[in-house]
Design goal:
The structure holds 2 protein chains of 2 kinds.
Chain A: H1 3-6, H2 12-19, E1 32-49, E2 55-77, E3 81-84, H3 89-101, E4 107-115, H4 125-140, H5 147-158, E5 171-174, E6 179-183, E7 191-197, H6 217-236, H7 239-253, H8 262-272, E8 276-279, E9 285-290, H9 297-310, E10 314-321
Parallel strand pairs in A: 3-4
Antiparallel strand pairs in A: 1-2, 2-4, 5-6, 7-9, 7-10, 8-9
Helix pairs in contact in A: 3-4, 3-5, 4-5, 6-7, 8-9
Chain B: H1 12-16, E1 20-25, E2 28-32, H2 38-50, E3 59-63, H3 67-79, E4 82-87, H4 93-101, E5 105-108, H5 117-132, H6 152-161, E6 167-171, H7 176-188, E7 193-198, E8 233-236, H8 239-253, H9 259-274, E9 280-284, H10 298-303, E10 316-317, E11 329-332, H11 338-342
Parallel strand pairs in B: 2-9, 3-4, 4-5, 6-7, 6-9, 7-8, 10-11
Antiparallel strand pairs in B: 1-2, 8-11
Helix pairs in contact in B: 2-3, 6-7, 8-9
Classes of the chains: A alpha+beta, B alpha/beta.
């Protein structure tokens, strides 16, 4: 992995954790805590040319602070890692990998993971679990994982990851390699998001079984202007340009993981004065993006809620990005 | 942003293939290329290399008397491909010498074909050469989808430097730059206006084929890469107007560009003034050096009856392409197909027989 790309990236989640480590606990063994937010799908997902012309599957996640995972780790010597609930095997694997990374192979312990993130909607529930777990293991031993290590462990634990371990920095992240391709340099601008699940079957998408898109040469090229506009959107903190990037990314990817009634959803964007349509590229979640600083947004959100309900989709969340919490 | 962006390029092609983006007025930006055709030439040859259609020593055959040939020659020379270019007597000797210095073989067709003129005669000679070299690669800029496909890099530069763009203005010859740029940008900016600049006597947008003095845009044949439904507006600019506008661009902005740039600048300046709230980008495809003894020489302009006293301030709007001319005219094309505007299917010649 490229050291330079990641060295100056803030890890806010980790900073806050370090702050509530009590001085007397530093360097000592204790119960470890970790927490990580979910995402609401992606602003961008596609194939991007890296150094040397190699193509990387990559994405920019849209953070969603209202959904979180929490992990508590009770370390114990000479035993295995067990997890509660037992089906969170990726978290269990992540804890084992995190221990191995710090040469703590003799250690195991009990891991408890809880989360309010809906499953199989493409909100990154397992990545949040895994990130929270890695932070909890580190916390238990008073050791820090940097975001680069977390990204690499997360990809090892679950094949594909998201970029949320990079906190408030927006990064273009090769989610199957755990590699930062580009630090876009700032947060995603202030957005108001009305999110909903387009899955009417209740089954959702299994991220692990979803076959990655096989983009045409034209689509591979078409991601270039998207990335150009994304860089500008982040640099100038322009929510409208973010909306255009998100809509274009959703359109290109529509044929690989179709969202039901996509044209209808695009029409709603126009009708309610939203600034873009944003999707989970490996899930069933869709978000309408609004400019929170536009006086017409409140009315637009209300009209959009009614239209979404009419289409039979259930609203899952209403949240903000661009500033702490939200 | 870094104060100085220092890049080391593998060759001159990568160093100059993208334009400089220059603010020409409050809402008008020029994309000033050294040689725009380097973009499609390198993309087409890259794709051909990935598909194992060319390798060092391969024969590449194309018909051109213009800048696409120069771009091909630069790249083929660097990559060790043997380039044969079929041209006609209209090729200027400095260009021919430059092509030959880049180790291209330049074949000049001496007499025009009865139907389709020199352009057809060149295609016929090319067919003979293609039979002679069965393993050749033909870039086919008029029909190859990798020509319009090459312009993603340009649109990445434009979106990153300008952001929101409402209108793109540019000359149309093969259709590659305007249709490619428009297709990529409209993914992000569906309302983007595309304004094509043609010249009288070009068949591209419904005029009858005729003698054209403004070269580098327009066509006597219909390329597949001209996607008519891309365009919102079409302008026909005469040679005298295009040349005068080239000089205005030079005098007002110190931008030393070729005549297709001048014609596009004339249209874009008018469009940007008429739509002060829109952000307009104009494509300026090549530099002025090849035209120093013509467009940039008042005596030559005068002797050829091409010296204009003053430029028109606006185009004459027409309802049908046949009403366009002899001076600057325009039509609301409204993203229609050729036959929807002209009233009949194109009856001239496509590139393929």
């Amino acid at each position: 992995m490229d050291e330079e790309l990641t060295t100056d990236i803030l890890m806010l989640e980790q900073l806050s954790l370090t702050q509530h480590l009590q001085p007397e606990r530093r360097g000592r063994l204790g119960i470890g805590y970790g927490t990580a937010t979910a995402h609401h799908g992606e602003i961008f997902q596609g194939v991007v040319e890296g150094a040397g012309g190699r193509l990387h599957r990559s994405l920019v996640s849209l953070p969603c602070h209202i959904f979180r995972s929490q992990a508590i780790f009770f370390p114990a010597q000479n035993c295995k890692v067990t997890v509660e609930p037992a089906w969170k095997v990726k978290s269990c694997r992540a804890a084992q990998l995190a221990l191995a990374r710090h040469n703590l192979d003799k250690w195991g312990g009990q891991l408890q993971v809880s989360s309010n993130i809906p499953l199989r909607w493409g909100l990154g529930s397992s990545t949040s679990d895994v990130t929270a777990t890695i932070l909890a293991v580190g916390d238990a031993f008073g050791r820090k994982f940097n975001e680069k290590e977390i990204a690499s462990l997360a990809v090892k634990a679950e094949i594909a990851s998201d970029s949320l371990m990079f906190g408030q920095r927006t990064v273009l992240f090769a989610h199957r390699e755990g590699l930062v391709l580009e630090d876009l340099g700032d947060t995603i601008p202030e957005l108001e998001i009305l999110g909903f699940n387009t899955d009417l079957t209740g089954i959702g998408i299994d991220t692990m079984s979803f076959r990655p898109a096989r983009y045409s040469w034209w689509e591979v090229e078409a991601f270039k202007p998207l990335l150009g506009l994304l860089r500008r959107a982040i640099r100038t903190q322009d929510p409208y340009l973010i909306g255009q990037v998100a809509s274009a990314s959703a359109s290109i990817n529509q044929k690989y993981l179709p969202k039901p009634r996509f044209d209808c959803l695009k029409a709603i964007v126009e009708r309610v004065g939203a600034i873009g349509l944003q999707v989970a590229h490996s899930g069933t979640t869709v978000g309408l993006l609004f400019d929170p600083n536009d006086a017409r947004t409140q009315g637009g959100v209300q009209r959009a809620q009614a239209m979404i309900a009419e289409m039979g989709f259930s609203q899952s969340c209403h949240f903000y990005t661009g500033h702490e919490g939200g | 942003m870094k104060a100085v962006k220092q890049n080391l390029y593998p060759s001159v092609v990568e160093a100059i293939m993208l334009p400089r983006v220059i603010r020409l007025s409050g809402n008008l930006y020029g994309a000033a290329f050294v040689l725009m055709k380097l973009l499609p030439a390198s993309f087409i040859l890259d794709r051909a290399r990935y598909a194992k259609l060319v390798r060092p020593g391969s024969v590449v055959i194309e018909t051109t008397s213009g800048t696409f040939g120069l771009a091909l020659a630069m790249i083929c020379n660097l990559r060790g491909y043997r380039l044969i270019l079929v041209s006609d007597p209209a090729i200027d000797s400095p260009l021919q010498r430059r092509l030959e210095d880049l180790s291209a073989r330049v074949e000049i067709v001496r007499s025009p074909s009865p139907e389709g003129g020199f352009q057809r005669a060149r295609l016929e000679r090319m067919s003979e050469l293609q039979a002679e070299y069965p393993d050749h690669f033909w870039p086919a800029q008029y029909d190859n989808p990798h020509n319009p496909g090459a312009y993603a890099m340009l649109t990445a530069l434009l979106t990153e430097t300008i952001g929101q763009i409402d209108c793109v203005v540019g000359p149309v010859g093969s259709g590659g730059s305007m249709c490619g740029t428009t297709d990529y940008l409209r993914l992000l900016l569906p309302k983007l206006k595309a304004v094509g600049v043609d010249t009288h006597g070009s068949v591209l947008f419904g005029q009858p084929d005729g003698k054209r003095l403004l070269r580098g845009l327009g066509n006597s044949l219909m390329p597949k890469n001209v996607k008519h439904s891309s365009f919102d507006e079409i302008h026909w600019v005469s040679a005298a107007e295009g040349f005068a506008a080239t000089r205005v661009l030079h005098r007002e902005h110190s931008l030393f560009m070729g005549p297709t740039s001048g014609a596009a600048y004339l249209v874009s300046k008018w469009w940007a003034e008429k739509n002060p709230d829109a952000t307009v980008v104009v494509l300026l495809p090549d530099e002025g050096y090849r035209y120093q003894d013509t467009v940039y020489d008042d005596e030559w302009l005068h002797d050829n009856n091409l010296l204009l006293e003053s430029l028109p301030t606006e185009p004459r709007p027409v309802e049908h392409p046949l009403s366009a001319g002899p001076e600057w005219s325009c039509i609301n094309w409204n993203r229609r197909e050729y036959e929807q505007v002209v009233g009949s299917l194109f009856r001239g010649q496509a590139i393929h027989k």
